Amino acid sequence: MEVFEQYWSAVQFKVCVNCIDSDGHGNCRLSGEEECGLKAHFPKIIEAILSVRDHRIEPYIESLRTNVCASCRHQTPDGTCSFRSRLNCGLDRYFPLIIEAVEDIRFGSEAHRDAFGDGR
Ligand code: SF4
Ligand code: SF4
Question: In the structure, which protein residues have their CB atom closer than 6 angstroms to any atom of ligand 2?
Answer without folding.
Answer: 37, 68-69, 72, 74-75, 81, 83-84, 89, 91-92
